[in-house]
Amino acid sequence: MSISWYIKRLQRMTLPEIPWRIREKSKKNFDKTRNFKSPEICLMPEYSIFSLYRDSKPQNINGFFPKTLQKHLSIANLALKNHFSAFGINVFFNSHIDWHRDPVTERSWPKSFWGDIDYRDKRFGGIKFVWEINRLYYLFPLAISYRITNDQKYADKILFLIKSWIKENPYPVGVNWSSGIEVGIRLANLVWALSFLENYDFATDDLKNINTFVWFHANHLKRYPSKFSSSNNHLLAEGFGLFVAGLYFPHLKGSETWFNQGKKILETEISRQILPDGGSFEYSTTYLSFVIDFFLLFKIICDINGIEYTKNIDKRLETSCEFIKSIMDKNGNMPNIGDQDSAVLVNFGISSLDNFSSILNTASLLFDRKDFVTAKPDLKTWILTGFPCELSKKQNYMGPKKSISLCLNKLNGGKQIKNATDCSFQMHSHSGLAVIKDYIEEKEVLFIGNAMPLGMAPLYAHGHLDALSFTLSVNGLEMFIDPGTYRYHNAEKWRTYFRSTAAHNTLRINKTDMSDQQGDFMFGKPYRIIENCLIKKGNKVIWKAGHDAYLKKKTFAGVTREVVWNPDIKEFMITDSIKQNKKIFIEQFFHCHPECRIKALDKGFIIKRRDEEVILAFSEHLNSQILCGDHEPVSGWYSQNFNEITETFTIRFYGDAINDSDIITRIILNS
Fold it and tell me: Which end of the chain has less neighbouring CB within 10 Å, N or C?
């Protein structure tokens, strides 16, 4: 990275952080020449590790979750051949695995001291592709394949991979030691894979490699914790890794310290990293899926082992599930706000987005909340809770579909969940999200108004310039969407676009972003949300929000947006108010789901997706433009998952405004 980037990063640090960074640098200089040697121990993990898979009987897994099982078997069979995947890219190795090779550039990162490697160096590629392979997500598919088939080759492969990884990443060499989050996630996937190997005959050399792997990982996490501006979700991965290493490997030197340190991190961070209203303190909806799993799996492990923990874990998890439930549509879709890197803690076979439904399923059982249960039973919930195996024991087994249906009915009190008839609205004041949920002719209408702050201070790393944007889902189909993220590193124009004001359903003035983008994970001076309220007047629901982004620029323009939902005429009326005293250029952006088809009308558009249709009518004095898959400038793109991109339609309204202006746009449900 450039010197200017390091200067900007230094300027964001608080005074206590600067001497801490200096001490960390001195520690790295010492470790660079230090000879690290792990204890020569060949003992089994703590026996309670084998109770992590609960009651998931092999004979029932295929019956309940055949698609998930086939996915795991496919990943496992490819892993047997050293064939892996990183964000949709197939990675093929021969008998020797190069754990340092970038699958996109085909260049290998240097095998030097981890502290000397700049993992932002774009000459080698985007570091997340290398790290994705090194997270060892395929250990769980191998383990469950062994559990199902009882074929030893799958378990043998797990031990081969652990041995290969340790040999090719001798501590402290290589980029795979450069980030604590990667270290913690590797430990989590190892632990859950080992939990399925109760009947495996471990050789002495196998146990030595496992213990060596765990000791180096946990020792590194203990020595290099994330603090200050770095203490985001990375800190949770570090704490979780320390906790499971200390709990399941008590015979290793330092295990008691690891356990206590990891437990303290998780118990302390629950009140910080999940906001009081249940949202993410990094102001990213998709990162919430990742963050919750650290606390959820921590709770599960504590419950299994009879470990006492702060009950604030339970309270905040339940609140977070209420938050998720409120912003999820009937088909399980979530607004994709802020950064999204498709991260999961353990590869249970579901995506980070589908994980929201799994979290609700698990919470419905843990907290006896019938309102949380979804219509999507999942293997992860079964493994963590024993559901639905326990219920099926009390019934005659009638096949997976009927049995699961009965299990869900039991959670619902034996009744089908019916759609609500009254409009509901909720303001998540800490997260900045306004939720309007209504039912028109039994069709769900879900509007999410976004007045989130710009990411987590002081870097605002995972924030997007999306103030006053919104998403709209009709009958479980996303119509107006947040376009997503695509990539982090080595993707300059894409990273700039997907974080930009123009990439969100909001207003831009004079073709200027709300805040300056400074590198891939920093912004300039952030805007403030100066108003955000949600009220009901009669049968109408009104959301009003504003920000000061353009008051800080030469335009000196104040911007507020008011959205009025009128169910009687099935209309959202959007009024964008601009306060200024000179001529400015304004743009409104409306991003449609890729499945949407658009037909032009006089001063409007018909937007149709399957059987659902809305009309977007715009202000008389504005011009309109349809963008799709453009490169200069970048516009009309959608990224549902990390490193995935597809063309979509973006509707742009634009024109000049003189003095104070109110721009009115209408979204009318036409189905």
Answer: N
